[in-house]
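FAQ

Q: What does a record look like?
A: Structure on top, sequence underneath. For example:
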């Protein structure tokens, strides 16, 4: 929490990542409402996946905070991902499929593109429209990399002093989905320059 306290328990989002409900354990009947503005970060631990960390961050997109997941940390930039559907981002490792999900994807198995329950489960685990963001660590807001075009446009600003990396981005060898590789190449380029 922003007051430096820690809440340890179970978290649930009701229709939005900005509507937080909390329980200390499964036996607790009433869920506590928590104002997202009081949350510093959400650390999700599971025996099935690595620790995941989420934030409410100011971005260069607009004045409203975005719900983002930290996916990579480095000396120069941290990389975050955002989704047009916050819940698909948060619950991507969770099997949320049920009969309603199955039926909502089409009227019966004959008329839908998904031929099995496992295909539907895979579909529901996907992050919808992932967008990557860079934390330059010297600005108050994190920077959206909306598209490959935007990446090419902003590359000189973010990755100056690394001509080989800039060439690969400009030649479309590296794209937005390669953002972690791009950041690592930039870090190694700068390390070589410092030696």
């Amino acid at each position: 929490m922003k007051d430096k306290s820690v809440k340890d328990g179970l978290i649930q989002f009701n229709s939005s990542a900005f509507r937080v409900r909390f329980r200390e354990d499964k036996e607790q009947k009433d869920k506590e409402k928590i104002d997202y503005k009081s949350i510093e970060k959400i650390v999700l631990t599971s025996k099935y996946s690595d620790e995941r960390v989420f934030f409410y961050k100011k971005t260069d997109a607009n004045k409203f905070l975005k719900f983002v997941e930290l996916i990579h940390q480095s000396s120069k930039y941290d990389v975050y991902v955002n989704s047009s559907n916050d819940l698909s981002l948060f619950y991507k490792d969770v099997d949320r499929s049920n009969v309603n999900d199955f039926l909502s994807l089409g009227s019966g198995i004959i008329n839908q593109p998904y031929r099995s329950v496992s295909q539907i489960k895979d579909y529901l685990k996907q992050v919808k429209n992932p967008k990557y963001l860079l934390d330059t660590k010297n600005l108050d807001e994190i920077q959206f990399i909306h598209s490959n075009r935007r990446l090419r446009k902003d590359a000189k600003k973010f990755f100056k002093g690394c001509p080989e990396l800039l060439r690969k981005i400009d030649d479309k060898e590296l794209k937005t989905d390669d953002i972690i590789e791009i950041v690592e190449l930039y870090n190694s380029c700068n390390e070589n320059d410092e030696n």
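Q: Is there anything notable about this one?
A: Residues 72 and 79 are 5 Å apart (CA to CA).
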